[in-house]
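Re: that backbone. C-alpha cells:
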C-alpha cells in the first residue's frame, strides 16, 4: 500500500493514548488499555461507516464504479479489519 499515511495513524494513536491517560488519572482503568479500547472503537466505527456509505443511497455510492475501485475498497477494508483485530488483541493483552 504505497499511499498509506503513517502520520495520521500515529496522531490518532497518540490522541487515544492521551485520552487513556486522562481516564487513568480519574479512574482505576489502566491508560494503555483505555487508549487502545478508544482506538478500537474508532476503527470499528470506520469499518461500519465505510461499508454503509458504499451501499445504495450512501455518500460514496457510485452506480458505475469500476471493478478496480471495488477491489481497492475491499482491500482497504480488509487491512482496516486486520488493524482493528491487532488493536483489540493489544488491548486485551494490556489488561
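Recovered sequence:
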Amino acid at each position: 500500500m504505497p499511499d498509506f499515511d503513517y502520520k495520521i495513524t500515529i496522531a490518532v494513536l497518540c490522541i487515544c493514548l492521551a485520552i487513556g491517560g486522562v481516564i487513568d488519572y480519574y479512574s482505576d482503568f489502566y491508560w494503555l488499555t483505555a487508549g487502545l479500547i478508544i482506538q478500537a472503537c474508532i476503527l470499528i466505527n470506520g469499518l461500519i461507516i465505510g461499508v454503509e456509505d458504499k451501499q445504495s443511497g450512501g455518500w460514496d455510492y457510485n452506480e458505475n464504479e469500476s471493478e478496480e475501485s471495488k477491489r481497492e475498497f475491499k482491500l482497504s477494508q480488509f487491512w482496516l479489519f486486520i488493524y482493528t483485530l491487532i488493536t483489540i488483541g493489544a488491548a486485551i493483552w494490556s489488561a
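The helical segments are 6-26, 31-54, 67-94. Residues 5 and 11 are 11 Å apart (CA to CA).
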